[in-house]
Design goal:
The structure holds two protein chains of two kinds. Chain A is mainly alpha-helical. Chain A has one helix at about 5-45. Chain B starts with a helix and ends in an 11-residue tail after the last helix. Classes of the chains: A mainly alpha, B mainly alpha.
């Protein structure tokens, strides 16, 4: 597969899309872990939900 | 399950894009279309989803509506950014310029700035219900830009080509390009749904953190007023 004289434009486009999508995925996973950690911290201090369910429970 | 389907479709789409023939005029740069067009479609689709959610916030006052809109904004901004940059990288070899202040490019840039503005608004207003209403109004006002983007290539002179897939009379694209494009469009749509659901879950957790912190703060003030020091709260 030859990409011709404009290969750098094509490769840069695909790499950029891959990088941004990867960044979005990593950010969302990191955010989830951060929120879970904060909820566990609050729960450990004795604050619980009125339903009695775990604060980190997302069902 | 959804993530697996997204990954499989993306792999198929990328393979088909790599195997697609060169265009007789554009050569191999036509391959940029397979990532540029899905991102451009999604940049508008995500704002449309947010507009429906904005109606949900203003009309039905459903709390999940604002969660959905807020979670979608950064993802929409990322798709719009990618549409702008990949379009620019496609434009340089084809048009001879990275950027032109014409109707299509400018209206998409405005869309990107609106995404950033909305994200800033959600961060700036501390009370979530006030932020939700303000963001919903701004989202609905911004929705005017969506048909402007779509029809800008018909209403004004522009370097950008007119619609060749979603148009009256059917697609003008050859099947060799149309199929990889459609597979990539479905794959990116699934990617959006997957990321959006995950981001919504995060937003629900963030709001739970906030309400529990407020409960914690009210206990501190209650026990302080009752004469106990805040240090005793941890044992409460």
């Amino acid at each position: 597969m030859s990409l011709g004289p404009y290969a750098s434009f094509i490769v840069t486009s695909y790499l950029l899309v891959a990088a941004v999508v990867l960044l979005l995925i990593v950010w969302i996973i990191a955010d989830y872990r951060r929120q879970q950690a904060r909820l566990k911290e609050i729960e450990a201090s004795g604050i619980t939900r009125r339903s009695g369910r775990s604060a980190a429970d997302v069902r | 399950m959804l993530a697996a389907a997204t990954a499989i479709l993306l792999a198929i789409g990328l393979y088909q894009s790599a195997m697609a023939p060169d265009d007789y005029q554009q050569g191999a740069t036509v391959k940029i279309m397979f990532i540029h067009v899905p991102n451009a479609w999604l940049s508008m689709f995500v704002w449309s989803v947010m507009s429906v959610a904005a109606l949900g916030t203003l009309v039905w006052r459903h709390p999940l509506a604002d969660v959905a809109a807020k979670a979608a904004a950064p993802i929409g901004a990322a798709f719009t950014f990618l549409a702008l940059v990949t379009g620019s990288l496609w434009g340089r070899p084809m048009w001879g310029t990275y950027w032109e202040w014409d109707a299509r490019l400018t209206s998409v840039l405005i869309l990107f700035l609106m995404y950033l503005g909305l994200m800033a608004l959600w961060r700036a207003v501390e009370d979530p219900s006030r932020a939700a209403r303000a963001a919903a109004v701004l989202t609905l006002v911004g929705a005017i830009n969506i048909p402007i983007i779509k029809f800008s290539v018909d209403w004004w002179n522009t370097l950008h080509q007119p619609a060749s897939v979603l148009r009256m009379g059917g697609s003008t694209l050859d099947k060799a390009f149309l199929w990889p494009l459609l597979v990539m469009a479905i794959a990116f749509s699934l990617l959006f749904i997957t990321l959006h659901l995950a981001a919504m879950r995060n937003e629900i957790l963030r709001r739970r953190v906030r309400s529990l912190q407020m409960m914690q703060a009210s206990r501190v003030s209650f026990t302080s007023e009752a004469g106990a020091g805040p240090k005793e709260i941890g044992a409460a």
